Amino acid sequence: MFPAATTASSGTPWRPALLFNNNGPFTLGGSEVSVPGIGNANAVTSNEPDGEDDIDRPSSLSVKKNQEEGIIVVHEVNCELYVKSRDPADQGAWKYKGTGQLIIKCKEGISTGTKESKPTIVIRNDVGKLLLDVLIYRGIMTIVLKNSVVTVFHTSDDGDSNEKVVARPFLMRTKTVEDRDKLVAAIQDYAPAS
């Protein structure tokens, strides 16, 4: 693509390495050219004293955790969420809903295992999209698989516009067996007894 060496009008040989070299400043025909934002990392290009050019910027584009007043988080784990397909063509296969942070939260100051504590499971993906938001109900059953937990939650039906509530099986897959065991214990501990 580029010839190995050519002669510019100044008589100096031109090589692509001189133009695209990250080790030093940009050179053109043997003379250095200063390009803003590129160049020597050790050189100070700011006219402001140290520390005054620090601007508060978000560390990433991901959603920050939102602490609600009067609510405490009692369990947290990353998981994949699946829902049992109700389409007869799928023959009951698990449909992938997404991966995200599962939290179990309760009202603060109210004893655990009561209906008044309103234990809730919320799963959000990395950008904040809500994957699941359900109450843990009295007598909730969990089925333990290899590194997954299967349970039935009452959610709005995806296809209906009248927001009809239906019972649907959900599978929450954790990374390790220990995470799965802690999740099952948290669901059982915070489920209302009365």
If you had to describe this structure to a student in words, what would you say it looks like?
- Residues 39-48 and 60-64 have low confidence and may be disordered.
- The protein is mainly β.
- It has helices at 16-19, 177-190; strands spanning 6-7, 13-14, 26-28, 31-33, 71-84, 94-107, 120-124, 130-135, 142-144, 148-156, 165-173.
- The strands form three sheets. Strands 8-7-6-5-11-10-9 form a seven-stranded antiparallel beta sheet, with helices on one face. It has a two-stranded antiparallel sheet with strand order 1-2.
- It folds into two domains: 10-51, no CATH class; 71-190, PH-domain like (Roll), CATH 2.30.29.
- Strand 3 and strand 4 form a beta hairpin.
- Helices cover 9% and strands 36% of the residues.
- Keywords: mRNA transport, Nuclear pore complex, Nucleus, Protein transport, Translocation, Transport.
- One of its GO terms (biological process) is protein transport.
- Its main location: nucleus.
- It is found in: Nucleus, Nuclear pore complex.
Range of helix content: under 10%
Q: How would you classify the helix and strand content by structural class?
A: mainly beta
CATH C-level category of the largest domain: Mainly Beta
**Helices and strands, in N-to-C order?**
EEHEEEEEEEEEH
CATH homologous superfamily identity of the largest domain: Pleckstrin-homology domain (PH domain)/Phosphotyrosine-binding domain (PTB)
Major sheet details: 7 strands, antiparallel
Q: What CATH architecture label of the largest domain applies?
A: Roll
Shape: globular
- Mean pLDDT, as a whole number? 76
The percentage of residues in β strands lies in 35-45%
CATH fold type of the largest domain: PH-domain like
How many discrete domains?
Answer: 2
Distance between the termini: 77 Å
- SS element count, helices: 2
Subcellular location: Nucleus, Nuclear pore complex
Keywords: mRNA transport, Nuclear pore complex, Nucleus, Protein transport, Translocation, Transport
Region (Disordered): 39-61
Protein name: Pleckstrin homology (PH) domain superfamily protein
